[in-house]
Amino acid sequence: MPDPIWLLIAEDLQLKIESGELGRDGKPLPTELELQEAYRASRHTVREAIKWLATRGLVYTRSGQGTFVRPRVDPFITRFVPSLESAQAESAAFGVAVRDRSRMPSVSPPRVEVQRAAGRYARELRIADDEAVVSRHQQRLIDDLPYSLQTTFYPMTFVERGAGRLIRAEDIAEGAVSYIEDVMGVKQVGWTDRFAVRLPDANEVAFFSLPDDGHVAVFEITRIGFDESGVPLRVTITTYPTDRNQFVMQFGQVPAD
Amino acid sequence: MPDPIWLLIAEDLQLKIESGELGRDGKPLPTELELQEAYRASRHTVREAIKWLATRGLVYTRSGQGTFVRPRVDPFITRFVPSLESAQAESAAFGVAVRDRSRMPSVSPPRVEVQRAAGRYARELRIADDEAVVSRHQQRLIDDLPYSLQTTFYPMTFVERGAGRLIRAEDIAEGAVSYIEDVMGVKQVGWTDRFAVRLPDANEVAFFSLPDDGHVAVFEITRIGFDESGVPLRVTITTYPTDRNQFVMQFGQVPAD
DNA sequence: GGGTATTTGTCCGTATGTATT
DNA sequence: AAATACATACGGACAAATACC
């Protein structure tokens, strides 16, 4: 069984794209009609070839305009530094990760909600299934470009115990973790990070301007912070597009770049 | 502009799949002919709907059999423990991560090659662009199921300096990092891990039995180990399918699960 | 702003090949 | 060997988006 025609066309186009013969400098690929004639195939067959390239992220099509080669983005690298000196350092990690590249980080005002803990968050916060939690959702940008979406869940009891700013829709400049330590004396002494990859939801597709064919997934990083007695004090879920983000962690003794 | 018909069909099928109305217990979805009649659409339109579901990983098709709901896999969680006591602990991390779940890890005999360092590895190992490196490639399995593909690059000078087993196509049971320390006195005191996500190559598609529509990406984790003087001594690249793997790291003081 | 040409998107029909049972 | 179901490929028609004059 030989390869189907659409695959031969797709692989030929891929070669010509990667060699630079096609699609240079944002120039569109040949139109479907031109490809039909060049490969002596039906439009359907040509479109299948293009679709194959598109689901692999090599090209994208714009209705009425043509097919374009997706420019390669150089990844943004986020460093997770295990700076254990203080919880505050971690809180400010967003700024730290960015500032040294002379880029401008910013965050949206948070969207604050109070809700019953769904199964997952109840389990991770180790509270009862119907207990209330505060969620704070923020968009984070770098140079006004979307960078990540972040939602943090706190037990609603924290508000009753004095951390009233958690339910205000205002940014907590010093970091919510520091704030909680200041007003409640509950100190975060460690955390776990869980890395997963999943398809983006509609919100993420819109915020990150992801292609709607679902071929770009997102990192979902779940951070659970613990206090001195090993009780979870917050769950933070942050998502980043996988096509333009990488993460670096270091352990032990590592030269300073 | 209303949604196209194929999208309406796709979303309707998605609902019926998620509610369990379709595809339970490995039962195939209705055939294309049945869907044509049910939605009064052409076969092409029905197939577009199925393709949309397939590129999102919800279903897969088998020629001559039908369309099936992709069963959700519960993710395998790999813990990256910052056990700094010794480099050896890290070397044996594969076994550690797995053993406590009463599963059986195994590794293939390595495929060993000597090659000139390509741009990337030369830069990461901080050696000249045309210097020779040893690469050791292994398949790692858990319960005889594919788990990860791993390639480690060492400077060829290590072999000349006494680490002869690096170019033997045999597993180094105590871990190559320990071996290097034993015979050369070069000790790994730290490392960096870089997490990236990319499309699988043909090797990875075959080894992990990934769908060939490219909708399942792989984690590519690059670990660079450093000795006491901050010189890189190896670069290890490990890939895992993103659809069934998650990674957990912990910092500071965290309760013991 | 409006009209027109270009290009991709959607949708239909049909025929034949290939894989599986 | 036959039946079933998906895969490939051809054809045509009209709609929608975009660019350009």
Short description:
The structure is a homodimer of 257-residue chains. With 257 residues, chain A is an alpha+beta fold.
What topology does this entry show?
The structure is a homodimer of 257-residue chains.
Chain A: H1 5-18, H2 32-39, H3 43-55, E1 59-62, E2 66-69, E3 76-80, H4 87-91, H5 93-99, E4 105-107, E5 111-116, H6 119-125, E6 132-142, E7 145-155, H7 157-160, H8 176-184, E8 188-198, H9 202-208, E9 218-227, E10 232-241, E11 245-252
Parallel strand pairs in A: 3-11
Antiparallel strand pairs in A: 1-2, 4-6, 5-6, 6-7, 7-10, 8-9, 9-10
Helix pairs in contact in A: 1-3, 2-3
The structure holds a DNA duplex (21 and 21 nucleotides).
Cα distance, first to last residue of chain A? Answer: 52 Å
Spans of at least 5 consecutive residues with low confidence of chain A: 84-91
Oligomeric form: homodimer
Considering residues with a beta carbon less than 8 A from a beta carbon on another chain, report the largest interface and each chain's count. A-B, 40 and 40 residues
By CATH, the topology of the largest domain in chain A is Chorismate lyase
Q: Assign the CATH superfamily of the largest domain in chain A.
A: Chorismate lyase-like
Count of distinct strands of chain A:
11
- Rough shape of chain A? elongated
Total helix count of chain A? 9
Number of domains of chain A: 2
Q: Kindly provide the radius of gyration of chain A, computed on alpha-carbon positions and rounded to a whole number of angstroms.
A: 23 Å
Tell me what portion of residues of chain A adopts beta-strand conformation.
25-35%
